[in-house]
Structures are given as structure tokens and as C-alpha cells.
Write a structure and sequence with these properties.
Number of helices: 10
Shape: globular
Distance between the termini: 26 Å
Radius of gyration: 15 Å
Number of domains: 1
Helix content: 55-70%
Oligomer: single chain
Structural class: mainly alpha
Length: 160
């Protein structure tokens, strides 16, 4: 399970908000799928740059995370590294892409399950639920940092 960090909580919430507000989403496109949208949030890279990076090496997001090498010099490893720095483990990347993390799924009401990993609304729910779970695991200093980060968010993001 991902390590709880204020930065990861904010990244998941910002990505869920972007998805809710209509940012491009297409599960079959490496750059605008579940992980692709999170990568956009974390790196500020545009979808074209993420897609180009993904084509440097074969594999979906889960495989890319499993093959991650911080010294490869590949742009995709830089992207995956940024995601892992926030607290994700390589397996969490696969879980986000497939909406399959058992700890997160247990918190989603039964009437909303099963989730479909290719559906925008389900991805938003999964990210928001994961962010809540991680926030609950923060210590007092982490909660203070999270509050600071949320205060620093642009007004349109903080209002959502």
C-alpha cells in the first residue's frame, strides 16, 4: 500500500477533480488514462510528452512501474520515479490503472461496485477514496502539511 504523504493525497484529489471537470480521458491512451492523468498532475507534462515517453519501452503502466530503473535515462522512468517519490509502490501504479487495490475497494459502497477501470466516474471515485484513506493515515505533521498544501491550491481547485 502506498505510503501516506500529503503530496500524494493532493495529487490524487487534484487528478480526480481534473477528471470530474472534463479533462481528456481515454483509458486506452497511455497519456490520458488513469495513471496518465495522475502523471500529468504530478509532472505538469502534456499528454503528448507522456505518450512519447511511454513509447520508449514496451508495456502498460503496471509493467513500466515494475521495470522502473532510476538510472536508465528514459523519460518514462523519470515520470514513474516522480509518482513513486510521492509514496506509491510499483504495484500501486497497476492498482490505479485497473482500479483494483483491495484496501480502497473495501471502502467503496457495495452498490457502486464492481468498478469499471475504463469509466471516468469510477476512476474519480477510486482516486478520491484512496486520498481519504491515505489522509486518515497521516500523522499530525502530515495533516498540517496537507492543510498548508490545500490552502496553497488555486482557488478553483480548493473550492471543489
Amino acid at each position: 500500500m502506498a505510503s501516506a504523504s500529503p503530496e500524494l493525497v493532493v495529487a490524487l484529489r487534484r487528478t480526480a477533480l481534473r477528471l470530474r471537470e472534463g479533462v481528456r480521458y481515454q483509458w486506452s491512451n497511455f497519456a490520458v488514462c488513469n495513471c496518465g492523468n495522475l502523471a500529468q498532475t504530478i509532472t505538469d507534462m502534456d499528454p503528448q510528452a507522456i505518450y512519447a515517453a511511454a513509447m520508449e519501452r514496451p508495456g502498460d503502466w503496471g509493467e513500466q512501474a515494475r521495470e522502473y530503473c532510476p538510472n536508465s535515462g528514459l523519460a518514462m522512468d523519470d515520470i514513474v520515479g516522480r509518482i513513486l517519490e510521492l509514496g506509491f509502490e510499483p504495484e500501486d501504479v497497476r492498482h490505479l490503472e485497473r482500479l483494483s487495490h483491495p484496501h480502497v475497494l473495501r471502502r467503496i459502497p457495495a452498490e457502486r461496485r464492481p468498478l469499471k477501470h475504463t469509466r471516468r466516474e469510477d476512476t474519480v471515485l477510486f482516486m478520491e477514496t484512496w486520498a481519504e484513506l491515505l489522509e486518515e493515515r497521516l500523522d499530525d505533521l502530515g495533516r498540517e502539511r496537507l492543510a498548508r498544501l490545500e490552502r496553497e491550491m488555486p482557488a478553483e481547485e480548493a473550492a471543489a
